User: Fold these one by one.
Assistant:
Number 1:
Amino acid sequence: MKVLLIGLSHKTAPVAIREQLSFSPASLKSALTHFDTTHHQQAHLETVMEGVILSTCNRMEVYATVRDPQKGTRAIIDLLSRACDTPASIFAEHLYMLEDEQAIRHLFRVACGLDSMVLGEPQILGQITDAYEAALSQKAAGTVLSGLFRAAIHAGKRVRTETRISVNPASVSSVAAGLAQQLLGDLTDRQVALIGAGEMGAVAVRALIQRGVSEVTVVNRTYERAQILADAWGGKAATFQHLPRILVSSDVIIVATGAPHIILTQEMVEQAMNERPQRPLFLIDIAVPRDIDPDVRRIPNVFLRDIDDLQSQVDDNVRERASEIPLVEQIVVEEVTQAVEWLMSLDVVSTITDLRGQIEELRQMELDRLFNKLDLDERERELIATMSHRLVNKILHKPTLQLKHEAVHGNGAEYASKVRRLFDLEPTRKPATLPAKPALTPQEPQTNPERIRQCQNLEF
């Protein structure tokens, strides 16, 4: 059995392709039913045993356990094509395919924020958790993928606890929201105004809403455009003629228009502050050319940050995050090593369990036979039973360690088979196997030209 990853991301596919392979909650649920671990009779997925689908704005990845990688690849691409109603020829060249420990390492690096568009962004860990839980709900994740995803989530939590890769904001909007929170404290009851209806300003407002802001006013030259955006946040709409009142009532004002001239002058801000001298006003100017007169910085209790200020902070934060990469990579190495060893140990776990079960059954039979022949009190019976239990454990201890050792080095299946023959244990299903020496150096996802050529030659 192989662990297989098939996917695409912001590194290999433009948004026009990624959006065609995105899943809604309903389509995700439907697709996962084809991986149901309790029913493997679907002809198109007969070689696929388990599956988890990770679908975000920046990536779509299918993690699966398969009997045959080539047949599994064909089945999964066929499923994606049908589930997303998109011909495979459109997206096949953007896919990357990884197997076994390379697929496992990629999952762990994604969970730790190393493969994100914004280094260290924390949302991906929650998205991985949601993807795993969705697969569980549809019985699509079995023993192998459950173990790997739980381990990846654990690694992601370690990274966010033991390093600072996710601590500082790494986007202009997040930095702006963070600075507002530092200045004003709790943002729950603060009033925010957005002047202009562009995307940059909207992103900044969303970042503030995530920090607790509930009152938003959108100001635009046309009321209709302001109303559309305000409705999305349950806010209010206004036109430029209401700016004097909004300057007085707002705590945070984000200005992002396409105007070629100043929108907020020093005089306008001074007049507003005369009515609210003790309340600080935080102004965020993310327009180019600037919308706010830089001289407003001279006004007491007025705090202005323009795009250069914010970008400088972003650059500092990104550099600080990047300095944490070696620590994060070390955690990935440690966690992947453990996961690979665990996966390889599956070769011998059932054999060890069956062997101990057989020996325990023989021990119990001999104890019963002995107790029937001897007149022993309860204390004597306990002593003999304890001695026999310890003897069995000591006899099996070294063989158990040796079996696990061989499993870690890729020989588990061979040794498990010999033990089953020697002790006449019932045969078991063919266990999972991985390469003996996992390469644990960081690796970026790569498209696989040879595999893609094979996929393109298949009839979908």
Number 2:
Amino acid sequence: MATAIEFEHVSKQYRLGLVSTKTLSHDIRRFWITNVLGKEDPYLKIGETNDRASKGTSEYVWALRDIDFKVEQGDVVGIIGKNGAGKSTLLKLLSRVTGPTTGTIRAHGRIGSLLEVGTGFHGEMTGRENIFMNGAILGMSRAEIQSKLDEIIDFSGCERYIDTPVKRYSSGMTVRLGFAVAAFLEPEILVVDEVLAVGDAEFQKKAIGKMKDVSQGQGRTVLFVSHNMASIRQLCTRGVLLEKGMVKMDAGVDEVVDAYLADQMNGNGIDRYGLGNVQFADWSVGQERIFMGDDLDINFKLVAKKDYYGDLHVNMNIFNSHGDRCVHTSNFDGPLAVQIKKGESINLTNTLKNVTLAPGRYFITPWCGTGAEAFDCITQCMSFAVEQGTKVIQRPFPYTSQYLFALPNTWTVRK
């Protein structure tokens, strides 16, 4: 199979704050060393790893560092990683929005990109005019674009506004039209960033279906960035996990997604946010592995950083390995009044009765706050596994990912 995309030791460095090296003499010296003498850029030796959570000491950061992999024609590759890992930068380099600092990128074929709302659109031009402009940029003739025009307009659902300037479109309408243009103008390589999350559920379903058709039915290559692990698993056959601008893992999509979720659970890259008035100081599950129909205790310790009087909301969401939210619980299902002073702590236990989740691994995200404001939320900081048991289902059955719950049931035959 032919290679569609090649990244050969690609790196991208940025200077924080300002463009250039601050002084004209330094800029001239840098130009002389790199462009005239052909030597290595001295500023490439002082960059730091791109870690958004730490301040650092250098003004230069590596958004990407030594990216080296190939994508075969017809592959559907999911690029995943936490915010700031370099996913969008990678797609911008491929789409030639910006150039790499070092290394080489080879793309064999036309690239259709949807990197952010309004990519490639001119606000003063109508939707119809923007379709023809984008097609021309891709090297298509007017006749070729005209033959696809009705399909693009129909898919976007923007027919009533197609002759209205794009600047008057909502973000959802702009994304709909942008995706339709990128997908229907027959690029050999389709590059789609997280922008699809702007669309509604109906459009996201259509977009995923179209990308499947483009890759499987037409043999084109798709690179897809998303934080929605269910969409990544559904669409992609291969995954690339980025961490701090470097490739941490390149393998089958299920293996990569599982590794990413496990990293989050183990504290490597956990996202945490909140005002901090009250925070989770400790958390644990009673059993790391249970059988279907068992009870499960989830334990929390909360510490007040400031005095807080009132009813504290403590919520818990449980997600499966596909990213679907399966369970939501709250102490406000049975109100728990909390009056806690600075430095004090309380211990809470949430007991799940008769857990009928399907076999598999599940991840827990705890949240506490006032209801209107978040004090603390930690993304998928715990996990547990559910195995087949005899309490819910009386005879063994094969594992399938087609369901979330196993509910007790009976069958009755009537004649």
Number 3:
Amino acid sequence: MHIEMDIPESAFSALRLSPPQFARQLRLAAALKWYEAGMITQSKAAILAGVSREEFLLGCGKFQVSAVQTTAEELAEELARD
């Protein structure tokens, strides 16, 4: 699927990115945010971002998003099941 967006040219210069680089960063940033919010899984986020799972995890570090999105309660439940 192809989506078009109107983005002011100043956005590219502010981030010092070419339009293709900006588009890649935008996809990654959206995927990271939705992953961080618990809306999508790590694997779906990587697919949405158009990167490998490894690259997605590197993006987590770059954008200071925790690669583990399990709450303490979820972890306790999981440990109780074992």
Number 4:
Amino acid sequence: MTIKPEYLKIWRTVQLIPAGKVASYGQIADLAGLPGRARLVGKCLGYVPEDGVDGQNVPWYRVINSAGKISFPLGSEHFERQKQHLQDEQVVVIGARIRLADFQWQPDITELLFRLQY
């Protein structure tokens, strides 16, 4: 599979989300320089290479919807897997919801200027 440049931007942005924090699909799209492309973020996270990107894992499970919820159907295998990954990082998941006021990644100016590539 040929990797699209937009996918690399998204994957590298997701790699910056710290453990114990989450970001929305739209937030990742904006930070990756792809405003309005939240659906593309969701799509491309389904194609994360098994060996990661640039030798690092892509923590896809840290990306949730803008309402603060896991997007997979409640109780599905993917839902349970994402929920478990988040809980392993001390993110509180109640039902399918994560309280964004407590767990949303808010990159500071240093991260925006020096870590984001786009």
